[in-house]
Amino acid sequence: MRKYFGTDGIRRIANTELSPELVYKVAKAGAYVLSKHSAHTPTILIGRDTRISGTLIESAMVAGFLSYGANVKLLGVIPTPAVAYLTRKLKADAGVVISASHNTYEFNGIKYFSNKGMKIPDTLEEEIEEVMETGKLDELTAVNDKIGVSEYALDLIDEYVYFFRKNFDDNIEKYNKNDFVVGIDTANGATSFVAEKVFKTLGINYKIINNNPDGININKDCGSTHLERLKKFVLENKLSLGVAYDGDGDRCLAIDEKGNEIDGDKLLAIISNNLRKKGRLNKDTIVATVMSNLGLNKYARDNGLELLQTKVGDRYVLEEMLKEGYNLGGEQSGHIILLDYNPTGDGILTSLMLILTILQENKRASELNELVKLYPQVLINAKVSNDKKYEYEKNKEIKQEIEKLEKEFAGNGRVLIRPSGTEPLVRVMIEGEDQQDITKKAQQIADLIEKKLK
Q1: What's the pLDDT score for residue 319?
Q2: Which residue of 205, 230, 254, 274 lies most exposed, with the fewest beta carbons within 10 A?
Q3: What's the CA gap between 243 and 249, in Å, rounded?
């Protein structure tokens, strides 16, 4: 069991649980692990979102890297996928994002990217923790002329803007319409400045909200986790589409012109449909997680596509894509990976793919939104003893109840049981055609799990 890293890097309350002392150690150990096979002085890029604690965490990270002897380029406020892209493009040894993604401002976090622009695997995170815990850090101190130096490289954001211009300019110009207007919600986060630059560069008409970060309003009632304000904005302004990013810019969800949500599962369907028409959907396959809606399964099956499902986490989606050569994958939450462009979820990229699809197919967003019929889902947490939360699979009575329910659904519903990675909970998720019915059944299974695994 890892002590510091979770499913998406380290994420804690800034300056207490995520103290400068801890950050310093994570930086020093990370620089060692990620560059120990390199003969040259390592270069590490650091980007952050708009949280008030961002510069505090950044300062501690810089100190740790320089103390090890690594050089640092500070990118300032920049989306997570931009750091991934620039790390690969500039052939840096590693990239770091200081962000707590969709969480509220008091949290912050650390995500490492390898020199290939991908989130580092579990094994490397475990190795970083091992170095932190063994006292080896004292040996990793640079002296004299070996101490690292840092520099600001804020202009590198223009390389990220050019990436979109290079890939979308011609097609957007060809299909764009004067009456096509997009609402953008940047969650007062890392896309607050760059999203507007991208849309201006591509000539897409837009109206923008929640792009005035003050350090504490990131994700506050806005962005991809709070779509109500964007929905209202789209309807009041009679916009063609609304797109919402999360705090660090690696997620995107959308609102069609009628005010209906387009979630990650629907985005996967819409984008896969367009890519396949162009012969660009590798192996006619979508990669998603076990949390994806049954509706996406049915869409894939009815349209002759393969849907592969991994455990929860976009890193596991990416692993499957790389292993088998697929180029489209993602999560219900709006992490969409378009591997032909970038090896991580990218909110702006996802929104541009959606916009291009709408324009090329000459359809309204609401028409494309109908590609997938989502099934009602209910999620109930069963409170259990922490040391027993993985034992549900061995309990005969629990297994029988789940099997009985799955037979009853006969393909028109499903049961997913998943222990929490951080809390003494077992999550019971059921999908089916009737909300009231599946709520009742999920509660029954949760009650049984609580009774048997106290």
Answers
A1: 93
A2: 205
A3: 12
* Position 421 confidence tier, pLDDT thresholds 50, 70, 90: low
Domain of residue 287, CATH code: 3.40.120.10
Task: Calculate mean pLDDT across residues 349-365.
Answer: 98
Torsion angle in degrees (nearest 10) through CA of 122, 128, 134, 135: -170
Q: What is the pLDDT of residue 422?
A: 64
Beta pairing partners, 43: 71
Residue 410's pLDDT is 83
pLDDT value for 193: 97
Q: Which two tokens stand for residue 273?
A: 């449909």
CB-CB contact of 351 with 358 (8 Å): no
Q: Label residues 417-437 b or e (16+ Cβ within 10 Å = b).
A: bbbeeeebbbbbbbbbeeeee
Give the structural domain span for 390: 377-452
Q: Indicate the number of domains in the chain.
A: 3
Give the 3-state secondary structure percentages of the chain, helix then strand then coil, rounded to 5: 45, 20, 35
Q: What is the CATH number of the domain that holds 418?
A: 3.30.310.50
Instruction: Please tell me the distance from the alpha carbon of residue 158 to that of residue 145, in angstroms, as a whole number.
Output: 32
Query: Is 101 known to be catalytic?
Result: yes
User: What's the confidence (pLDDT) of residue 420?
Assistant: 79
Task: Indicate the pLDDT class of residue 312, thresholds 50, 70 and 90.
Answer: confident
| CA 185 centroid distance within chain | 16
Together in a domain, 15 and 120: yes
pTM over 0.90: yes
Position 2 in a domain? no
Annotated catalytic residue, options 101, 150, 240, 272: 101
Name the phi and psi angles at 286, rounded to 5.
-115, 135
